[in-house]
Amino acid sequence: MRRLLAVAVVCACALPAATAFAHEGNPNFRSDVRAVTPATDGITIEVLNRDDRLLLTNRSGQDVLIEGYQGEPYARVLADGTVQVNRNSEATYLNEERFGQVAIPDGVSPDVDPDWQTLSRTGRFEWHDHRFHWMAEGTPPIVEDESKTTKVNDWEIPIRIGDRAGAITGTLWWTPQDDGSVPIAAIVALAAVLVAAAAFVMIVRRRRRRPAAADTQREAW
Questions:
Q1: Which phi and psi (to 5°) does residue 44 adopt?
Q2: For 110-153, what is each residue's pLDDT tens digit?
Q3: What are the C-alpha distances in Å from 163 to residues 65, 76, 135, 160?
Q4: Nearest CA among 76, 72, 185, 174 for reference residue 125
Q5: How distant, in Å, are the alpha carbons of 67, 128, 153, 160 from that of 167?
Q6: 157 C-beta neighbours (distance < 10 Å), count
């Protein structure tokens, strides 16, 4: 039992590191949405993973178009929930990598007609956008004290709702690293591993007791 618990503790202790490795956002930054204009019922924007992705949900009954980096149509969530990206927008490819280090296919240009590719019909579009995070390695020059939360910049992503021009606006913040305390998720994971280990030991012990009980009964006869 003690050996199994020791193994469980070691495995659980490795969980936070694995989570941090898989984390695609930067823990030193947090991007907040300030507003969506024009204000429209049924349209929400959410930041995922601190500064990694945006999630747009459209239940407004109107088409929502997100513009690319050169003002071209990049993606849209139609009134019926259809989600599409424009394969002739550079943003479609640049947004695949955090710092945009990707090759753009030949022929992709804001000057050609959109080539719409349907992704889903959920009314929800999730994407990485270089306009709402820090596009360089290291600490922004504006951050003088890394131990203090500091505003880095305001950001804006142009959109269209129906036939009206608008924008998603927000603010990017520098945020200090946490104090090293154990995350709640890691505690829950550790508890789950320990419970599973204890259950396994109980099952093994019960199986060992059954043959012993059977032998005792045979001896009694």
A1: -130, 150
A2: 999 999 999 999 999 999 999 999 999 899 999 999 999 999 99
A3: 10, 13, 31, 6
A4: 76
A5: 9, 16, 16, 7
A6: 24
Per-residue buried b or exposed e for 96-118, using 16+ beta carbons within 10 Å of the residue's own CB: eeeebeeeeeeebebeeebebee
Is the Cβ–Cβ distance between 55 and 42 less than 8 Å?
A: no
Return the sign of the alpha-carbon dihedral for residues 13, 19, 22, 25: negative
CA distance 150 to 146: 8
Q: Cβ(140)–Cβ(174) under 8 Å?
A: yes
Is the bond preceding 38 in cis, omega lying within 30 degrees of 0? yes
pLDDT digits (tens, 9 = 90+) for 55-100: 999 999 999 999 999 999 999 999 999 999 999 999 999 999 999 9
Beta-sheet strands, E only, within the chain: 29-37, 43-48, 53-58, 64-67, 73-77, 83-86, 116-120, 124-127, 150-161, 164-174
Give yes or no for a contact between 80 and 66, defined as CB atoms under 8 angstroms apart.
Answer: no
Report, as an integer, the average pLDDT of 174-198.
Answer: 62
Angle at 74 between CA 70 and CA 79, to 5 degrees: 140
Neighbours of 78 (CB within 10 A): 17
Compare 7 and 38 and report the one with higher pLDDT. Answer: 38
